[in-house]
Design brief:
Number of helices: 5
Region (Disordered): 1-30
InterPro entries: DUF655, NA-bd_OB-fold
Helix content: 25-40%
Strand order of the largest sheet: 4-1-2-3-5
Strand content: 5-15%
Radius of gyration: 19 Å
Largest sheet: 5 strands, antiparallel
Biased composition (Basic and acidic residues): 1-10
Structural class: alpha+beta
Organism: Methanolapillus ohkumae
Oligomer: single chain
Shape: elongated
Pfam families: DUF655
Length: 219
């Protein structure tokens, strides 16, 4: 008979699609690569805290990685001003708006405009990758003896968790609409995901479900 014991999300080998990671500093070659980003803000004179004379300041783009939700400072192609909230490719050397990646940044380093744009950009990414995130609901498993991975989502407690698990035993959810129809208390399944992604971006989490763990704070 097959082993039906709950799989612990702390063990990467036990997880099929979502890798739950401890808060560690990832090596540069592991987890910092994104092919597509969402533009959050364009800063024509760089960051506000840059105290150099205006003529010395260079423009910056702040962007959100589409896959691992990594935050970046990017160097724009000279003379190009990207529209906010577009998805653009990076890394090939012949990009329309992005010349190169300058640095991976923390949530606190985002401009005010970028922070306002962030939930909208995450929403677009989540809707575009709906099958990836509905899979999280369908394959939810315990992360500890007392907690299921669904309970990591803000707004989902024991009762909602049990309702969702009960429905997945009958049949996996096809999409977000199917989830909302079969579990009416979940009015906006995307928002639960979005809120969790933002929590992970801010750091201090035991488990990183959807994002690469934030880089260590600069001294």
């Amino acid at each position: 008979m097959a082993d039906e014991r709950p799989r612990d999300f702390k063990n990467p080998s036990s997880v099929s699609s979502f890798e739950h990671k401890k808060h560690v500093h990832p090596k540069p070659e592991s987890g910092e690569r994104e092919e597509w980003v969402w533009i959050l803000d364009y800063l024509p004179y760089g960051k506000e805290e840059d105290t150099r004379p205006v003529y010395m300041k260079k423009p910056l783009i702040q962007a959100l990685g589409n896959s691992k939700f990594i935050l970046f400072d990017l160097i724009p192609v000279e003379g190009k001003v990207p529209p906010v909230h577009i998805k653009t490719h990076i890394g090939s050397g012949s990009e329309e708006y992005v010349e190169r990646v300058k640095a991976r940044i923390m949530y606190e380093e985002l401009s005010r405009g970028a922070k306002l744009e962030l939930p909208l950009a995450i929403s677009s990414a989540v809707k575009e990758q709906e099958s990836r995130f509905i899979q999280f609901y369908n394959e939810a498993r315990p992360v500890s003896m007392r907690q299921n991975s669904l309970e990591l989502l803000p707004g989902i407690g024991k009762k909602l968790m049990l309702d969702i698990l009960g429905e997945t035993k009958k049949k996996p959810f096809d999409n977000f609409e199917d989830l909302k129809k079969r579990v009416p208390a979940i009015r906006d399944p995307e928002k639960h995901i979005i809120d969790r992604i933002i929590e992970e971006m801010k750091g201090g989490q035991k488990y990183y479900v959807f994002t690469a763990p934030p880089k260590m704070k600069r001294e």
